[in-house]
Amino acid sequence: MTSLRRLVPSPSALFVFEAAARYLSFTQAAGELSVTQSAVSRMIARFEAHLGAKLFHRAPTGIELTEEGRQLYAAVTSSFQRVEMAIEDIRSQHGEQGTVTLSISSAFAMHWIMPRLPAFEAQFPEIDLRFQVMRGEPLGPVQDVDFGIRYDAQDDAEHLRWPLLAEEILPVCSPDYLKQHGALTADCDMSRHTLAHLSGTTRLPWARFLAAFDLAGLRGSRSLTFSDYALVLQAAISGRAIALGWRHVASHALSDGSLVPAAPHVFSTGRHYYLVATSNRPLRKPALLVRDWLLNEMTELQKVPAQAASKTEHSPKPAGKKRRV
Hints:
It is built from eleven helices and eleven strands. By secondary structure, it is an alpha/beta fold. The chain folds into three domains: about 1-90, Orthogonal Bundle (Arc Repressor Mutant, subunit A), CATH 1.10.10; about 95-165 and about 270-300, 3-Layer(aba) Sandwich (D-Maltodextrin-Binding Protein, domain 2), CATH 3.40.190; about 165-270, D-Maltodextrin-Binding Protein, domain 2. Strands 3, 4, 5, 6, 9, 10 and 11 form a seven-stranded mixed β-sheet that branches. A two-stranded antiparallel ribbon has the order 1-2. It is elongated and about 75 Å long. The N and C termini lie far apart (about 60 Å).
């Protein structure tokens, strides 16, 4: 820290820089910090002179970060977040109030957490939730957060993990779509159907699901393709397509009737989702309450059959059988 003090003109320079970089506006940064715009401008200029490098490009239309500015902003933001979490840890070590940070997929945040947020807030009025939202697969390490929801998380010494639920996938659509276009069957007219796809490599593409249950193939169907699974499911809810619904994400829409099964089949992969935390820091009381809430909600979810609107559940055919695509 002695060397850091020599590297910045003053401790406040980092706070001024972080606000200006976050807003890309000296005026908005000044409003947040309760100082004048000229004071922010002078501090940034002093900081740049101290570093011997420009942090912002200035233009009549506004400011933007230089390459050096982006490098510093990434480091400052990460450091500030860790300091903030440490302070919150200290303040809430023995109390029930505080902020709990979750690293989750955008689809889980939109379609599972948000519908349950009013009930959570009513039960835990002293706890605030912060989300680190991931696009794409819920994989990778858990860093600078209290918990992450991860697919097929491995058991190791660096993490704590709690099983949430098994991975199950079923085709879903809106009630109006089902009424207008009919269900997916072995001999249905696929030209009547639009299938919502996730771009890139997916664990269960449509062709594999259809073949697993001897349903009609992709030929003739229309497609909508998205880079984010939250939008894939939203396309089904809005009545535009049939989507493959991961149970833990689609459960609320299925329970409130905005989604219904498009076929009486559930694909069980045999793999699981886990709630994961780092083992390097103790769990605060607010974090423990959120953990228990998540585990309880998932337990309740599993009491309802994945294919609630159908009479039977099916497993995919053994891999050795011939499949029609």
